[in-house]
Design the sequence.
């Protein structure tokens, strides 16, 4: 039976049913155990941040259907999204818990990870850093309040969660940190604010962590989604709108087109399940074989060339150094 920290308040719906909480519909169908053409995550323990919507919400449900023991986390509990997520999970399946975790708080992160480890009976197998926010408008209009919130959430939040989980992972000489970045962590689009800046930081932080964890048997994979119709930009409008209100008229007048398009709710018509499916495939891979970077999008992937030249540059720069074995190991994975 799936263990739940509080009773569900909604009727259970199936994994591929209509999911109002994530703002888009999926083809109807029952949630089932992993089939022959799906990864088998039986016995894996997975903690995910940002499960109130989007990739985190969908992934939490999906990984349970593949046999994983899931710790879905979100802030500001109790909340209706937690009840909706409970309603999607399998009653007859691996244990499933929703824990309160605010990536902006050291104390909240430490408590949630410790509780997940306690319930799991030891180190987590996988941590998926997914919680994030985005804002629009030109960089000049991104005041320090906005900039601080973006970096605290998208970068320092990832660091908080990884630091909390890594000691036990290192002790057991195994584990996987999945950091959700973006195509915009390698390329950038004018008017996207400092979102790209935070994702560039996630890329570099994650790559350095991947090298340093090689001798500890812990893998790091950076997921680079393209545009998907999740709620990140709709949610980001809650931060962009007041930021524009705070901005002075002279600054706004300098960028009329970019200001006009600052509030957005896009992502196209792609299938957001592509991302949880891709992550599940990486989780199922053997330790030490998982790729450093995982581009995910059915269309163009403009970051591929940058990923390639970056790997070659790192090996050329450090391949003959004392760090060479780590760098070659990480950049030799496909």
Sequence:
């Amino acid at each position: 039976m799936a263990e739940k920290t509080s009773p569900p308040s909604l009727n259970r719906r199936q994994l591929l049913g209509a999911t109002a909480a994530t703002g888009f519909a999926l083809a109807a169908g029952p949630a089932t155990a992993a089939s022959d053409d799906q990864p088998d995550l039986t016995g894996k323990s997975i903690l995910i941040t940002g499960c109130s919507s989007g990739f985190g919400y969908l992934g939490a449900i999906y990984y349970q259907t593949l046999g994983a023991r899931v710790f879905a986390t979100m802030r500001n509990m109790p909340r209706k999204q937690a009840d909706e997520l409970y309603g999607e999970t399998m009653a007859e399946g691996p244990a499933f818990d929703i824990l309160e975790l605010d990536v902006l708080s050291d104390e909240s992160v430490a408590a949630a990870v410790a509780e997940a480890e306690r319930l799991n009976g030891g180190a987590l197998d996988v941590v998926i850093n997914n919680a994030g926010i985005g804002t629009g408008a030109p960089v000049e209009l991104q005041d320090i309040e906005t900039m601080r919130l973006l970096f605290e959430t998208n970068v320092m939040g990832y660091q908080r969660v990884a630091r909390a989980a890594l000691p036990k992972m290192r002790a057991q000489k195994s584990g996987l940190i999945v950091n959700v970045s973006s195509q915009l962590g390698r390329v950038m689009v004018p008017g996207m604010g400092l979102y790209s800046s935070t994702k560039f930081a996630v890329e570099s932080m994650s790559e350095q962590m991947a090298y340093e964890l090689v001798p500890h048997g812990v893998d790091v994979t950076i997921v680079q989604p393209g545009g998907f119709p999740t709620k990140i930009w709709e949610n980001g409008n809650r931060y962009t709108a007041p930021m524009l209100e705070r901005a002075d008229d002279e600054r706004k007048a300098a960028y009329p087109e970019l200001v006009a398009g600052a509030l957005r709710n896009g992502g196209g018509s792609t299938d957001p399940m592509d991302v949880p499916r891709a992550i599940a495939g990486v989780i199922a891979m053997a330790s030490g074989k998982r790729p450093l970077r995982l581009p995910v999008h059915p269309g163009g992937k403009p970051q591929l060339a940058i990923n390639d030249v970056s790997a070659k540059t790192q090996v050329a720069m450090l391949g003959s150094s004392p760090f060479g074995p780590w760098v070659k190991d990480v950049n030799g994975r496909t």
Q: What stands out?
A: Residues 40 and 208 are 29 Å apart (CA to CA). Residues 1-35 have pLDDT under 50 and may be disordered. Strands lie at 45-48, 69-74, 96-100, 126-129, 175-180, 218-225, 293-296. The chain has one domain: 41-307.
